[in-house]
Structures are given as structure tokens and as C-alpha cells.
Amino acid sequence: MAVKLRLVRTGKKKQPTYRLVAADSRFPRNGRFIEILGTYEPRHDPSRINIDNERAVHWLRHGAQPTETVEKILRISGAWEEFTGKPLEPVVYPEKKKAVEEAAEEEAEPEAAEDSKEEE
């Protein structure tokens, strides 16, 4: 059985709250789950996160795969650091191609200006 740690949407229309659950990956998003690990309330400022880190780490150690959003929430709660055993490092997301190309162009422009000054 492939276990995933994921969010289950609850709450009223336009007012979502989520439960963080361990569920079989074959079941639908709001379907059957194995265990509730905590809650996430994004509408509060700041967002409320209430997770049983001990149980989350237990599932991670037994091979459960978190979704991207759940991984971010686990990083905030400290469970991810406890699971990996090393201090948190900043998450680096792959940049879009346009942003990379623009950055390369910006770096090339000042160098061209410096070369023309040296020639004078």
C-alpha cells in the first residue's frame, strides 16, 4: 500500500480548512484515510498549523510520501527537520526559463558598458 501524507479539504464554501492525513494514495482527496495527523487553517492571519509531529515523523519513516504543500507545512512545524536529522536549508525552486534568460541579459549589459569605457 502506497501511503501519502496529504490535505483533506473541510469547511464551508469559500472558507477552507484542511486536515493533514495519512491516506492510501489510491483513494480520492476527500476519501478514506488511515489517520488524522493535524489541521491547517490558511484563512487566519497568520495561518494556524496544528500537527502531531511525532506521528508525522512516524509515517515518514515508514515510507509515506508527502505532497509538496504538506512538505512545506512539515518544514514550518519542525517535523521535516526531525525526520531528515539536519537543519533546515532554504528551499530552492527551479526558475522559469524567461527569468533565467533575463538575468543573464542583465549581467551581460553591465559588462558591455564596462568594456566600452575601457576602450576610451
Q: Could you walk me through the main structural features you see in this protein, from its secondary elements to its overall organization?
A:
- It is a single chain.
- The chain has 120 residues and is α+β, with helices and mostly antiparallel strands.
- The chain has a domain at 3-84: S16 Ribosomal Protein, Chain: A (2-Layer Sandwich), CATH 3.30.1320.
- It contains four helices and five strands.
- It has helices spanning 53-61, 68-77, 79-84, 97-119, and strands at residues 3-12, 15-24, 35-41, 48-51, 65-66.
- It has a five-stranded mixed β-sheet.
- Strand 3 and strand 4 form a beta hairpin.
- The longest helix has 23 residues, at 97-119.
- 19% of the residues are buried.
- The mean pLDDT is 82.
CATH domain fold name of one domain: S16 Ribosomal Protein, Chain: A
Q: C-alpha Rg, in Å?
A: 22 Å
Determine and state the CATH class of one domain. Answer: Alpha Beta
Distance between the termini: 71 Å
Number of strands: 5
- What average pLDDT do the residues reach? 82
Judging by the overall fold, what is the CATH architecture of one domain? 2-Layer Sandwich
Largest sheet, order of strands side by side? 4-3-2-1-5
